[in-house]
Amino acid sequence: MMDELPVDQVRTLLAVVDEGTFDAAAEALHVTPSAVSQRVKGLEQRTGRVLLQRTKPVRPTESGAVLVRFARQLARLERDARGELGLSGAGEPTRVSVAVNADSLATWFLDALTRVRGLCFELHREDEAHTAALLREGQVMAAVTSSPDPVPGCSVRPLGRMRYLPVAEPEFAERYVTGRPLAEALSEAPVVVFDRKDDFQDGFVRRLGRGSAGALRHYVPTSEGFVTAVAAGLGWGLVPQTQAGPLLREGRLVRLAPDRWMDATLYWQQWKLDSPALAALAEAVSLTAAEALLN
């Protein structure tokens, strides 16, 4: 039937996306590049849609991403079934791919993984506002995200709130902030941001009534490096309360506004699959988040 999705064509599409080129996919599948091309074209004809952007590396179109996600879910179900039947290869681990934001990764998320045994984790670090995109594209099976709206084919549950404090090194605060209206000071002072997607510091300044944080910006794309840069006096920044606490007690940081903070509400999204591996991970993540985050 024309509305059926041939498994070999779907798996070939996934191989092309994962390997990046038709030739590499052919090598991985032990077939000729011509066979790979024919399978992908056949799937495009069957669905009536272009599924791949013929770039280097190859990227799925929006329609292609739907089939890539389906292919990964199919592979997950097959591995679970083989495991229950005792057909898995000797020593073959069950792999679970997860997208998680850097601050969760640096503070509480790894504790959740220690509660699950027998799984192999592949973590993708991404801003919480963008992790859902990896889930939508089928690159991961689950994600810590700031979006409460479930990706198609996924379930969602709230995890809690991560609190961020506006802080700076004491001499920096004295030089740029003390004695000035906070909104004015932070809109002009040097600032540390995670990367060019990071709008958190700008959002805090907007809440104070100004347009954005200062133009002098230091981009530090690791959670630990971000905190170190703020403590070194490069700029002010919003630091997770759990990371800021020890430095505040040691006097290496000061709060710029004791009565103000920013909260990031986090959610757990995962494929709607009857998968023991995903169920075990979801339970561990929920338990750990309940201990580490604000309700």
Give a short overview.
Strands 3, 4, 5, 6, 9, 10 and 11 form a seven-stranded mixed sheet that branches. This protein has a two-stranded antiparallel sheet with strand order 1-2. It has helices spanning 7-19, 22-29, 33-47, 62-84, 102-107, 109-113, 131-136, 170-176, 182-186, 200-208, 223-231, 241-249, 276-292; strands spanning 52-53, 59-60, 94-100, 119-125, 142-145, 154-168, 191-193, 217-219, 237-240, 254-255, 262-271. The chain has 13 helices and eleven strands.
List keywords for this structure.
alpha/beta; seven-stranded mixed sheet; 45% helix; 20% strand
How is this structure best described in words?
The longest helix is centred in the N-terminal third of the chain and has 23 residues. 45% of the residues lie in helices and 20% in strands. With 295 residues, it is α/β, with parallel strands linked by helices. It is elongated, with a radius of gyration of 23 Å. Strands 3, 4, 5, 6, 9, 10 and 11 form a 7-stranded mixed sheet that branches. α10 links the parallel β7 and β8. Among the domains are: 75 residues, Arc Repressor Mutant, subunit A (Orthogonal Bundle); 102 residues, Periplasmic binding protein-like II (D-Maltodextrin-Binding Protein, domain 2).
